[in-house]
Every structure is written in structure tokens, then in C-alpha cells.
Amino acid sequence: MIYDCVIVGGGIAGLQAAIQLGRYRHHVAVIDAGDGRSSICKNYHNIIGFPHGISGAELLASGKSLAEQLGTAFVKAKVVRAERSGDVWKLTTSDKQCFQGKRLLLATGVKDRIPGFPMLIPCMGISVFVCPDCDGYEVSGKPTLVLGSGNAGARMALTLTHWTTELIYVNHEQTRIDDTLRVQLEEKGIPCIVKSIREVMLEEEQFKGIVLDDGSMIYRSHCFVAFGGNEVRSSLARQLGVELMENNHIHVDPRTKQTNVKHVWAAGDVTGHSEMATIAMGDGSQAAIWIHKSLITT
User: Fold this and answer.
1) Backbone angles phi, psi at 296, to 5 degrees
2) What is each CA distance from 231 to 74, 164, 186, 249, in whole angstroms?
3) 73, 124, 139, 266: most buried by Cβ count inside 10 Å?
4) What pTM does this model have?
5) 256-262 contacts at long range (C-beta below 8 A, 24 or more positions apart)
6) What is the arithmetic mean of pLDDT over 261-286?
7) How far is Cα 66 from Cα 18, in angstroms, rounded to an integer?
């Protein structure tokens, strides 16, 4: 079967695009490996209609259900190869399945680097955060830890001073911090502890603090993680000759979300945007509108 559009990535951007394309009555397939960053967020606090927040799992389940009602096919798999085959795009998964589409939307997202601390995952969006634009408000006036590495953690700590001045930065990987950033940390009164973390203290979904390698403890109820080096999942785009930015995000037309390769679109965190769920939704809808336009004019 040749689909009107194959979407790689079933996160927020991919699902929103599938819903919109389904409402245009196009035949759509979503191929998703099930390990996107939205799947581990326990609470989005900044989405209209959910004053008490909603988990990523709930949001994804709701989006998938609606897309399925509109005829979208879902495949749980990882796409490892993308290529043009005549007038269609051919996608091959790690388990050797093949899918073809007249149009291709890459919504493959970003994977956060959280080295050695899988125990933080249950707290994501509740007491542990990664995006200050999304969740800086959650630590307003509260004592907060920044767990990070080098410049990435320093920049996070400085950004968070908009909401709180009670900050401690733990440079877990003991990576060098630029002199300019170090001076700014000192000016803001942010202690920088250059020691490794031995243990993270938790109580179910609540972050409680850390134990450093020397046995000392720091108690805090909230933390931000900023290790840098997040994986931008743009390898399929690279295979297709899609233009990438210096940071490996996919470059798209800001209006249409189309890449430099005809009939290939990209949406969500894999593109160069602010990496917010609400923006990913808009990206998905916008890409779908222009995918639809291209399908009905050929």
C-alpha cells in the first residue's frame, strides 16, 4: 500500500499532523518507536484546557485514539532507512518492514541526555524538569538544584534566576565552565559545586535531593537537568539530503514546515524551534495543511 503520507514519530507533533491529515481524509501511517521525550513527562502544566496539567502518556493516548478514529494506521517500529523510490518515499524499519508514502513528515524529536540517572524519569514534569520555558514557573521562589555539566548547566542556572534566586549548580561531570559564565554565576550568587553525584534521593515521584561522592547531602524538592549533548534525531533527514542546522536540527520553511527536499516536511522538536509541546502541536498542524495542499494540487 502507498500512503498519502507517512509520519515518522508519534509524539505530539506527529499525532497532531496525523489528526489534521485524517480530517482531510488522507491515508496516513504513523511509525513510532515509542521512546519519545513526551512519553516520559508526567505533567505538562502549560497547555490550555488542562488547568491541573496532563501527563505526556495521557496526551499521547488521546491523540492516538482520535487519529485512529480518523483512519490513521499506527506501527510500533524504528525506521532505520529512508530513500526515494520513484515518486514515493520508502521507509525501512529495524525489523525489515517497508512502508511507502507519497509525502513524508519527519517528527522524530530529540532525546534528552540524562547520564546515569534513570531514577529521575518518574519525576519528570512533577519535581524534575528539563525545559525552563515550559517549567521555570514551577520553581518560582523555591530552592532549586541544577544538575548538569559545564556550560549547559551554568546557562540553565542563570536562566532560572528569572524565577528564583535560591539556586545551586552541581557540575556533575566536572566539565570546564567558560570564564564569562563563571563570573555571571558569582555575580548572581549561585554556588557551583564541582563534584560527582553518587545518589539521587527520591520518594516515589518526588525529588528530595542528592548525595555527592564525598558523602555530603543537598536537600531540595525541585531540580532542573542540563547536561547538554541531547540527541537530535535527524539521521533520516541526513540520509535524504535534507538541510540541517549547525546543531543538527532540521531546517524548515517557517510557514510551510517543508524542508529543502520536495515532499519532505519536518515538525516538532527535531526542527529549530523552542521545543515546547504547544509549539509542536502547531508545527504538526501547519505541516499537515501544506502536505494536504501539495496532495490536492498534483
Assistant:
1) -90, -5
2) 24, 29, 30, 10
3) 266
4) 0.94
5) 256/286, 256/287, 256/290, 257/283, 257/286, 257/287, 257/290, 258/287, 258/290, 259/106
6) 94
7) 9
173 in Cβ contact with 115 (< 8 Å): yes
CATH of the domain at 123: 3.50.50.60
Q: Which helix (H) or strand (E) holds 200?
A: strand 197-203
DSSP state of 249: P
Measured between alpha carbons, how far is 51 from 174 in angstroms, rounded to an integer? Answer: 39
Distance, CA of 145 to CA of 137 (rounded, Å) = 15
- pLDDT for residue 298: 63
Three-state SS letters, 34-63: CCCHHHHCCCECCCCCCCCCECHHHHHHHH
In contact, 42 and 120? CB cutoff 8 Å: no
For 229: left if phi > 0, alpha if psi spans -120 to 50, otherwise beta; the answer is left
* Domain match, 101 and 245 both: yes
Give the pLDDT confidence score for residue 60 in this predicted structure.
Answer: 97
Read off φ and ψ for residue 12, nearest 5 degrees. -65, -45
Residue 73 backbone phi and psi in degrees, to 5: -95, 135
How many domains would you assign to the chain? 2
| Residue range(s) defining the domain that contains residue 265 | 2-112+230-296
Query: Burial of 183 by CB count in 10 Å (0-12 exposed, 13-18 middle, 19+ buried)?
Result: exposed
Q: What is the DSSP letter of 165?
A: S
Q: What are phi and psi of 271, to 5 degrees?
A: -90, 175
Q: Give me the chain's average pLDDT, please.
A: 96
SS3 229: coil
- 14 and 141 in a single domain? The answer is no
- CA 257 to chain centroid, in Å, comes to 17
The 10s digit of each residue's pLDDT in 9-68 is 999 999 999 999 999 999 999 999 999 899 999 999 999 999 999 999 999 999 999 999
- The x, y and z cell numbers of residue 262, run together, are 520536495
The residue type found at 202 is L
